[in-house]
Amino acid sequence: VQLAESGGDLVQPGESLTLSCVASGLNLRHYTIAWFRQAPGKEREGVSCIKRWNGPTYYADSVKVRFNIYRDDAKNTVYLQMNNLQPEETAFYYCAADENVRSYLQEFEYEHWGQGTQVTVSS
Q: Which of 32, 58, 71, 110 could form a disulfide with 101 if both were Cys (CB 3.0 to 4.6 A apart)?
């Protein structure tokens, strides 16, 4: 099982970016997928998740309205569209997957993790 994130980049404040999480060895449709991020010197925090079987989505308060999580089952990929990015959102972004997530963004519930992709927001 592998999760591979991509799409991280250096962007200016206010710009947008879309991250991708491609899975191999599992059918993402059967899994709840979440995005987490970890900024330098800070703990990892949950950003957004999408429940399995096209279930509901959930967003941390700090990203509501600006971020959008969605999946493309044909490509076995989950995306995180991020709008109006701010410097404080500079972090390594990770996707995670698990079949049995009861909550939304509790790290301990996710078994599979990707290696992450760097997002830097700076002018």
A: 32
